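Retro notes
What went well: the complex prediction finally ran end to end.
Inputs used:
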Amino acid sequence: MSETIATSDRRALAPTLGPARGPDSVLPVAMDGVGYTVDGTTLLEDVSLRIRPGRLTAIMGANGAGKTLCLRLIQGLLHPTAGTLSHASGPVSLAGRRRIATVFQRPVLLRRSVAANLRHALKIYGVPRVERAAMLSDLLDLAGLRALAHRSARVLSSGEQQRLSIVRALAADPDLLLLDEPTANLDPYATRMIETLIRQAEARGATVVLVTHDVGQARRLADDVIFLNRGRVTEQTPAGTFFDRPQTAEAAAYLAGRLLL
Amino acid sequence: MGDAIAEAFRLIAVGDAALWEIVSLSLRVSLTAVALACLLGLPLGALLAIARFPGRSVLIVATNSLMGLPPVLAGLLVYLLLSRAGPLGPLELLYTPTAMIIAQTVLVTPIIVALSRQVIADMHQEYDEQLRSMGITTTGAVLTLLYDARLSLLTVALAGFGRAAAEVGAVMMVGGNINHVTRVMTTTIALETSKGNLAIAVGLGLVLMLIALTVNGALMALRGTQGVARHV
Amino acid sequence: MIGRALLVLGLALLAPLAVADERFIVVQSTTSTDNSGLYEWLLPQFTAESGIGVRVVAVGTGQALRNARNGDGDVLIVHARAAEEAFVAEGHGVKRHDLMVNDFVIVGPRADPAGLLESGGVNDALKRIAEASVIFVSRGDDSGTHKKELALWRAAGLDPASGDGGWYRESGSGMGATLNIAIGMDAHTLTDRATWVSFGNKGDHLVLVEGDTALQNPYGVILVNPETHPGVRARDGQIFIDWLLSPKGQAAISGFRVYGQQLFFPNARRTN
C-alpha cells in the first residue's frame, strides 16, 4: 500500500478525476434552508450547503451539532421537515439515493465472512452476476483484506472492519460517499490506512463527505469545510480559509481545542 | 423404573424392527412438519418483524396466543377438514402420515412465527439503517435477516421440533394410531399405557428422549461449526 | 413469487408421503378388541387370503360411531347395540350383524371392602358398592363400556352420576387409562374381560363380579353405508365382513387365546 498521497499531488490530479461522472450523477447535492424537527425539538435549522463533485467536504462541529443528521438527510434515510434537499439540481429521487453510499460510525457488518459481506453488497447494489467475482477480488485488494476473506467479519479489528465497510460502500460505485467519523478510536497506523483508502475512493471517482472530529485529518484531506454549531451552519469555506482564518468565534474556539458550551 | 430402563435398553439393543418403523415414521412426520412450518413461518415471522401494515399487531397477538394451541384442538380442526364429510374429504388424507404432518404443521407454525419474529426484530433493529442506506428491498431485507439469524433460528426450529415430536393428541386424532401406517412414538406410548404395559411405555419414552437428545446434539454440533470464526 | 416457491417445495416434501396405491379398508373399532391383540391375530389371516389390508382405528365406541357418521371408515366393529341400531336406522350403516360376544367384569382390590365376592349378581354388587361408598371409576366417555355401565346402574335402581360424586368418579378416558386410574386409587371399575385379561398393570386387583347374564357384551359389525358416504370402500369392506361372519372367520375368532384363555365367542347367524 502506498504512502498517503500528499495533498498537493492529489489536487494536481483532481481535474481529471473529479466530475468525470456520467450525466446521471447525483451531484451536486444541495440543501436549501433545511430544518429538521422531531417531537418539537429542532435539531437542524436553516441549513444551506452544497456538495460539489470532486471536492472532499469535511463536516466539523461539536457533538450534537447535527453532523450525522446531515449525512442521514443526504442519504435519504430521513426527510427534512423544512426547506429542500436536491440531487443533481433536481428533486430527490430513488435513483439518486442509489448513487450515494454511507459508512456509519459504527458500521453494521453482516454475520458472515468478509467475502460474503461484499458479495451481499454487490448483489444488493445490482451488480450483474458475471461481474461480481472480479469486483469482489478488486475490493478485497483495495481494502487489503484478501488474506482475511474467509474470516468472520465480526471478529476483525476495528480498523479492518472500517476498511471493509468502506469498500462495501464502494461496491455501489457511488458518486457520493458519506463517511461518519471513519477513524474514531483508531490508532495512527490504522488511521493512515483509512485515509489512503479514502484517497483511492476519490481516485475511483467518488466524491467524499467526511464527518470528523480530527482537526489534523481535516487539514490533511479536506478541500472544503462545513462547520456546524447547534444545528446551524456557521461556516462553509475552502479548507485553507477555514483553518487559517476561521470566520466565527465558535470555529476558532473549536480549532484551538477549547470546549464549546 | 428399573424395569423401564431395562426395557429401553432392550428395545434399542434388540434393534426391534417394529421400533425402528415407529421411530422413523415419528422422525419423518415431525421433521417434515417442522420443515414446512419453517417454510411458512420464517418469512411470515420476518415480515411481522420488519414490515408495518394494518392488522400487524393483531397478527402478532394471534400467533403468540396460538403457541398455546392445544394439540387435541389442532387435531380436531384438521380432522374436520380432512374427514370424508369435510371440505378436503375427497383427498382421502385422513389416517395417513400426510394428515399427521398437516396437524403438526398447524401446531408448530405459530411457534416458528412468534419466536422468529422476536429474533428477527432484535436483529432488524441493528441492521435496519445499514440495509436501508443500501437501498435494499423488503424481500432482500427479509432474506438477509433470515440468513444472518440462522443460528438463533436453528434454536427456534428445535423448539418447534420439540413440540411436534412430543405431542400425541393431534397425531392420534388425525392419524388414528394405525399399526404400520400411522403409529408413532407418542401414540405407541399412549397405547402401551392403555394396555397397562407401563415398563414398555416408559422405555419408549426414554427412547423418544434419546432421539430428541440426538437431534439436538446434531444441530448443536452444526451450530458449533458455524459459530466459530470460519465461514465461507 | 416466494409463496409459489414455498408451495412447490411443500408439495415436493409431501409427495413421497402420499399413501401408496394399495388395497385397504379402514375399520373404526372399539379399543377392547384392539388392546387384547385380537386384530393382530385375525387380520394377517384375512389379508393373506384376500389381499386386502385392514387399518384399524381403535377408539371408544362413541367416537368410533361419530367418526363413521362422518364417513371416516369403511367398517365399524363396536359394542353398544342400541347405538348401533340407531346408526343403521339413520342410514349411516347398511346392516348390523352379530359378530361375537364376551363379557364384562367388575374388578376391584383384593381386600374387597364392599364384599362383592359374596354378592348375588351384578345388581346386588352395584348396590353394595353404593352402600359401602367404595370408589368406583367410570369411563365417563360415551364408550360402549360406559353405556353398558350406565344401563347396569339404572337396572339396579341407582343413579350415582347425580350424587355428590364422593365415591363415583368419571375418568373421561379409555379403558386402559381408566384401569390404570382404578388400580392407582385402589378403586373398582367395570371392564370387558378381553382388556382385563391382557392388561399388563393389574396390580393387586382381581375380578370380583362376573358371570351374570346381564354382563354379556355383544359385538356387532356394520358396513358404513356407501349411499350416504360415497367414499366408502364398500366392496372390500363387505368382503371383510363376509369373511368375519363365515365359518372360517368365526373359527379364527374362537381360536384367539390370551394366556391360554378364549376371550371372544363367535355368534354370527348366517341369515343369507
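What we learned: Residues 188-203 of chain A form the longest helix (16 residues).
What to try next: split runs per interface for comparison.
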